[in-house]
């Protein structure tokens, strides 16, 4: 599906439904698989030149799993693609760049 980002976006479920969860220390936490899926959605948005949507997806992952996102080279690559195509960096993009150690 990587060569067909429109199919990825159609297959992606809304943010609030279909979340995969795993039990950890008595609470619920989003699973790594779900976060990886969200990165695939962000990549699909980037491939479709929907840069604000890609940033929104990355921001939502950062809000729910900042430590996980910081260790993901895939997230850094996606954000690098967005930064490369944009003339102006938003505050959200700068925050994400810091989070994933993307040099600006």
Report on this structure.
This protein has helices spanning 5-11, 32-47, 51-64, 66-70, 73-85, 91-99, and strands at residues 21-24, 27-30. The chain is mainly alpha-helical and 104 residues long. The chain has one domain (5-99). The longest helix is centred in the middle third of the chain and has 16 residues, at 32-47. It is globular.
Quick overview:
The protein has 104 residues and is mainly α. It has 6 helices and 2 strands, in the order αββααααα.
Shape: globular
Percent strand equals 5-15%
How many β strands by DSSP? Answer: 2
* Strand line-up across the major sheet: 1-2
Largest sheet: 2 strands, antiparallel
- Cα-atom Rg, whole angstroms? 14 Å
Helix and strand composition category: mainly alpha
Written as H for each helix and E for each strand, in order along the chain, the element string is HEEHHHHH
Mean pLDDT: 83
Low-pLDDT windows of residues: 15-28
Distance between the termini: 30 Å
The proportion of residues forming helix, as a percent range, comes to 55-70%
Number of domains: 1
- By DSSP (H or I, 4+ residues per run), the number of helices equals 6
Keywords, please?
62% helix; 2 strands; mainly alpha; 104 residues; two-stranded antiparallel ribbon
Chain-wise SSE layout:
Elements: H1 5-11, E1 21-24, E2 27-30, H2 32-47, H3 51-64, H4 66-70, H5 73-85, H6 91-99
Antiparallel strand pairs: 1-2
Helix pairs in contact: 1-2, 2-3, 2-5, 3-5, 3-6
